[in-house]
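INTERNAL AUDIT FORM
Audit reference: QA-55
Scope: verify that the stored structure record matches its stored sequence.
Auditor: D.O.
Record contents follow.
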Amino acid sequence: MQANDMIERGVRHAVEAPATKAEIWLSVLHLVDEFRHEIEQQRGWENLWVSGEERRDERAVQVSFNTIVRPLARQLGIAMQREVETGRGPVDFEFGNGVAARVHVEFKLADHHHLMHGIEHQLPAYMRAENADSALFICVGFDDEDRRAFERVVAGAQTMQRENPDIFLRAEYIDAQRRSGASRH
């Protein structure tokens, strides 16, 4: 199956030493899925909470993502840079295969007061400045209200995609709610 066909069908997997835009896109989606799995299923959410009721900030999310994903990206032959200056500000992460393709990744906490600005203006500005045509906007939520806020982000991403058919922009959600162990139920 061709990489473009896999994207259309929603298949997500890593490609070692991705050579095309479609392959790097699939690989970055896979890396995000690995991070999501660690946060949602492997107690990684604990790294995003301070003891008690206080959640950590966006920088802590970025550090956790960097720690989990960097070795995987290296193993796949994917270049990963953090806080890349775009000329319009730093994008959180940039993934690439050297020459042919780049994917920007921007994180926002779902309760951030500029959440919609991030998807509608900030990330597209970074993409234009760097001539990047692919990006992920990742919202990290800590409660049910954050998940509802993400629904607005999805609508915003779809609008941006329709208005800018030359870019590929997708919104993803990572649920960092505190969880109890399965043995306690």
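Auditor finding: record pair retrieved intact. Residues 139 and 173 are 5 Å apart (CA to CA).
Action required: none
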